[in-house]
Amino acid sequence: MKQSLQLRLGQTLTMTPQLQQAIRLLQLSTLELRTEVQQALDSNLMLEPADENEDDIEDTEAEESTNGATEPTSAEAQAESVRDAAEREVDEATPASATDDIPRDLPVDSDWGDIYDGTTAYSAPAPDDNRDAWENQATDGRSLQVHLLEQAGLSRLSDRDMAIAEAIIDGVRDDGYLGSSVEDIRSSLPEDWDVEPDEVEAVRHLIQHFDPLGVASLDPREALLLQLEVLPADTPWLREARTLVDQHLDLLAARQTAQILRRMKLTQEQLCQVLELIRTLDPRPGSQISDSTAEYVIPDVFVRRHQGEWVVDLNPEAAPKVRVNSYYASLVRRADSSQDNTTLRQHLQEARWFIKSLRSRNDTLLKVASCIVRHQAAFLEEGEEAMKPLVLREVAEEVEMHESTISRITTQKYMHTPRGTFEFKYFFSSHVHTVDGEECSATSIRARIRRLIADEDPSGPLSDSRLAEILQAEGINVARRTVAKYREAMSIPSSNERKRIA
After folding, report:
1. % of the chain residues with pLDDT over 90
2. Domain spanning 431-498: which CATH class is it, in words?
3. Rounded CA gap, 68 and 70, in Å?
4. What's the Cα-to-Cα distance from 242 to each of 236, 263, 377, 460, rounded to whole Å?
5. What is the DSSP string of 123-159?
6. CATH 1.10.10.60 residue ranges in the chain?
7. Is the pLDDT of residue 119 over 50?
8. Which of 110, 203, 246, 265 lies most in the core, judged by the most C-beta atoms within 10 Å?
């Protein structure tokens, strides 16, 4: 091989730490942004939180220079002049690449997983001054096992029975049923105890009467029969309900109504009354106790109607305000290359870039939210069935940004509307062509399917083919398999599973 020198022209994009920070802030949810801001306040001595009615320092300076409505005192004017001089000095000493504005289109040829690992957030309650302060509070997170152990501790059991109870409770699944056999429970106990199966069964029957009733049962039949036993003896159709659960539960699960009517010698109306009683029972007793705690999100924007138009406002609680500390900024000295002065200069530049990144994030968020509201005004006025098809490309073209930027700013961002709080990505959906050549969004089709199923006759539910025919009659060309896909996405059972005796 022969060595040679060549000249090449090309464009490359360097992922500077400042650009990585701007990308990370763009993707963070509100709760994560608060953590990021707090970390910046803790690590950068030039940053300090701004007052609620005060924007960051650069905005305050702009308002004072533009409006001239208020004149600062001599001390404030002196501090501001020192700070301005320090910031101008930093600007002169900082390379141009470090002070350029944040690009409108962020790079797409990077592995964002190396920069940011997002988490899922959930919906937050709408602010309401009349709402009960104790409503929907987070639970203490106790598991089903802890709940049962507390009751076992109050049952005055002997040490031997308490150990058996702990072994049984340890084998209870989240749905309330016992996932371990009697032999497994016996093997977990000391061998020299020589525990008999009858002892395990006796303790298990005691636990079954704990709260929730029917826990530690072996199957739904046992759990339902225990719940029927505690009902008053004069409960209508109690005897028939016991017979149905005890002897014909498999037929009920298979929805073989004719077989049940013939074997129990009941009429259609009588069977309906029996089933109404059975529906009051809980076939999954363990689901009443959950160790999951509610997680909330704070809406990033509020949508309200003002003078006949939809207006989008940033949530002030979702946009933390920080500013440069004027005192520390005044300590930056010109032409001083000492280590302390270099550190102060570096912190000042990082603080200004962080503030600029926050402002860029808020501006982009408001711009994208306003565009979404303009496209989905019909949804805000009429509901899901009026949702219009919308894709990221349409918003990107309207706000003159790249699709990747729109994708990041719509991830884990929430919009509070009169119809509820929704994630930005909820308003994006594919489309299906209608008979007259127009387009109908997938969200609108799912809403119509949900409405049709809600209004159907329970004794004769609509099949997927029938739903497709009804939608085609309304002008929406959709296949049966598409209806089935949308129905399954909404966790709606098939027509055979929805069929019930009403």
Report:
1. 44
2. mainly alpha
3. 6
4. 12, 14, 54, 27
5. --PPP-TTS-TTTTPPP----HHHHHHHHHHTTT--H
6. 431-498
7. no
8. 203
